């Protein structure tokens, strides 16, 4: 695992949220070799789910809850987190004042290329729009997981920027929500996620692997995949059903 110490200079903040709302400016990066091995797992989130079951970890959200907007897309990257809450003032008053309190741009500012934006948001309103997706994409973010709504799916699709979310909405979040924390703990589909945790996503759903467990989960996933491959070869070779049923593959 990577050493938490880093010599990278701290990035200046954008001011989109108060400085005290930024819980962490950086987190240790997982080794590239670990991420590459995860990316080679074929049935990504299903294998992660089986591996995490064996290790007693809960961290998987199905696509019936967080639906992929680009069905063929896959993600393997560490989380930069955003926690949004409801604004206290009336929508009309907030809109007339014209001051947005959405601060996800600070997460993009702090992100390293390949990180995944993970937003604990509000349902039915946009926690990430087309312009926001464009900024995230420009910053090198690999995609976004939104426990809530997002809008302007056409722009995200045109960028090839994958998003998993509870749904699409035309309703802006500018006057309805405020960003409370960047890179703190969020809850996504009931799963606690910390900045730096590993995000895996595909057409089946999303898996969140705690940073400290990334190596153990990977090893179990590779073991499971090797067993699946052996079983597939036996099926293709015509091994009889009795033998298939009695063979322990994983």
UniProtKB/TrEMBL annotation:
Highest taxon listed in the record's lineage: Bacteria
Signal sequence, start to end: none
Coiled-coil intervals, chain numbering: none
Cofactor(s) essential for the protein: Mg(2+); a divalent metal cation
InterPro entries: RraA/RraA-like (IPR005493), RraA/RraA-like_sf (IPR036704)
Gene Ontology molecular function, alphabetical: metal ion binding
UniProt keyword Metal-binding present: yes
Keywords: Magnesium, Metal-binding
Keyword match Metal-binding: yes
Binding-site positions, substrate: 151
Residues annotated to bind Mg(2+): 152
Cited CDD domains: RraA_family (cd16841)
Region (Disordered) location: 1-20
UniProt protein name: Putative 4-hydroxy-4-methyl-2-oxoglutarate aldolase
